[in-house]
Protein: Nicotinamide mononucleotide transporter
Amino acid sequence: MNWLDSEAFVLFGQHIIWSDMAGNILGLIALALGWRRALWTWPVQFLSGLVLFTAFYGHLAGSAGKQVVVMTVALYGWWQWRRGEEGADDGRIAVRFASWPERAAMLSAAAGGTVAVALLFTAYPSLSWDPWPDAYIFVGTVVAMYAQARGMVEFWFAWLLVDLVGVPLNFANGYAFSGFVYVVYGALVLWGMRDWWLRSRRTPQPVLEGAPA
Structure:
């Protein structure tokens, strides 16, 4: 038996699974590291996806497949931040607000991706426990991670929108532990949003070659 699928303990009548607990804790650590603009946010996010993939592989193909996508985006984020093309004065990633075309592209990808993934989950019920909210949370997470990789302040707004669905959904389905973790996510998101917002205002804009001084 895969020990990641075994019960860690019971809290308030809820059976806490090792994989769920470990994945959520690693997710919280990764989000905190993202707030600090630390490169280690990406290995931790990758490790979180790997833990959940190991737990799901072999009996929950849909959930395992989603973790592969999350790990792939984590690798992209690591590569993007390592490039250092937008490094701030403190040697970490510089943050900025997305342009309107970038915002439109992310919103379109989020909307279209949610519909496409939800229809896929609906066609193959074994891939998801609840197609539409599951698709919304999954696609929203991928979009948020992409925005984070690009150093966009909108990363935090995307996470907040995911939390707005994730918190009540987990509590409504009896997952009090996961719901509580999402509440903590929400607090970190608000603090991180404020920090990145203020930093974006201090980030000097690039000067085009040939522009007047």
Q: What stands out?
A: The beta strands are 7-11, 14-17.
